[in-house]
Amino acid sequence: MSAVLEKSVAVLDAAIARKSDWPTLNPLPEQDANQADPFPFDAMGHNMGAAARAIAHGVQAPDAIAAGSVLAAAALAVQPHANVVAPYGARVPLSLFILTSASSGDRKSAVDAIACSAVDELRKEQARKFQEELKAWEEASREKGKTPPRPIMPCLTTSNATVEGLTKQLMCQSHIGVFSSEGGEALGGHSMRDERKAAGLAFYLKAWDGATIDALRSGFGNIVLLNRRMSMHLLVQPILLRQLLSDPLASGQGMLARCLIAQPTTLAGTRMFKNVNAYNDPAVVAFNARITDLLRITPDCWPDGDGFALKPRDLHLTDDAMRAWTAFYNAVEVEQAPGRELEGARAFASKTAEHALRIAGVLAMYDSADAGRIDATAMDGGIRVANYYLTEHVRLTRSSQADKQHGQLRALLEWMQEQGSLVQQATILQKSPRSIGHRKKDQLMPLLDELAERGYIRKSGTAWEVRPCSD
Q1: Assessment of whether the complete model's pTM goes beyond 0.90
Q2: How far apart, in whole angstroms, are the C-alpha atoms of residue 324 and residue 322?
Q3: What distance separates the 2 farthest-apart alpha carbons in the chain?
Q4: Dihedral of CA 375/114/82/209: which sign?
Q5: Contact present, 311 and 227 (Cβ < 8 Å)
Q6: pLDDT tens-digit map of 198-242
Q7: How many CB atoms lie within 10 A of CB 185?
Q8: CA 362 to CA 368: how far, in whole Å?
Q9: Measured CA distances, 217 to 164, 214, 223, 224, 253 (Å)
Q10: How far apart are CA 103 and CA 452, in angstroms?
Q11: 319 to each of 45, 53, 353, 375, how far by Cα in Å?
Q12: 267/63 Cα distance (integer angstroms)
């Protein structure tokens, strides 16, 4: 064998030995941002959960669309009647802001028509009654004498209203819902345009908190609205949700933290025809009958003032519910620490325990309009549903520390693989991709160390050797 050949064989043998010397690879987890967890229907209680499941099954729509619509209708029906007395003393409204994203063709409107049919029927009834009252008023106005006050059109829900319009409506009623199966009407409306967005968001924050709504309006002067309630239920296209999630004002002011956001996995391509009418499902019929009964209960209001200031009664937690809620609160709090799972989702995470109280209160009131306590069953349901939305929030905003870390690791690794089998550390510090967010040594070194621990790279003098892609 020639000297040249011997040298080549030696180099090849060394390379093979070197290649086989790599440790067992610990792969980076695959990212699947389109895969949502299943919605916990059973957490919503026997009838409400069964109704949501039946609607999703009958319409062949994603689970969280049906669940969100059912939960929103229940929140609208019970929000004027009670508050939850939180363990820290605050009185928490039962209003919910539910924002569900799905593409065209995912049957958002079909689901909403069934889940909110009781709400729609009452709105139609209110409209017919108003027309009768208006006709009587017009006839009375033509007679001599004192003209009676013009009747006011009630508005149980609205799909497209300005802040001014909502304020004006709440001057003559106690509560309202901003409901739309085409949520772009609300998110893209006049009050949410760039120059008015801050004021629009501030109004929604007050409404969610149940805080006093005050405004100075032309023609009305100084308006002070006490103890009103407002729930929101919007079904939006994914592009609108992405815009909202990336809006620094919506995030900074706390709007996103107050919304229960979900984007379930589409069922398109799997929905073979089924001869099923979800309207007639016994659980759905029972649900809509229950919502009708709850909507017809006249809420208690303070006798003085404008007569529309609500006087909700208190819902207290039982001892078992208190223990369950405390454990959930503490578990979520721990995960918000630096380096933990919820570090990047603190805004929503810090509200999750309150979301659980609100949802539990809705479940308790749905089961019994005279409820005075939230028991362990309702609290467990509230916790499980709130936890679902927490998981969705983290998934959709990609704000968990682990997701960010894995994304940075993947971006750095792919760049190093493009540079060749050996990359100088100085080159990494100077030219690594901006997509990982930084080039400082004290921030890059932990990423390089983790890639090395996983077996993707290893130190070689002043450089890093990259594991062959075929290995």
Answers
A1: no
A2: 5
A3: 125
A4: positive
A5: yes
A6: 778 888 999 999 999 887 565 566 788 999 999 999 999 888 888
A7: 16
A8: 10
A9: 8, 10, 7, 11, 23
A10: 41
A11: 20, 31, 17, 8
A12: 10
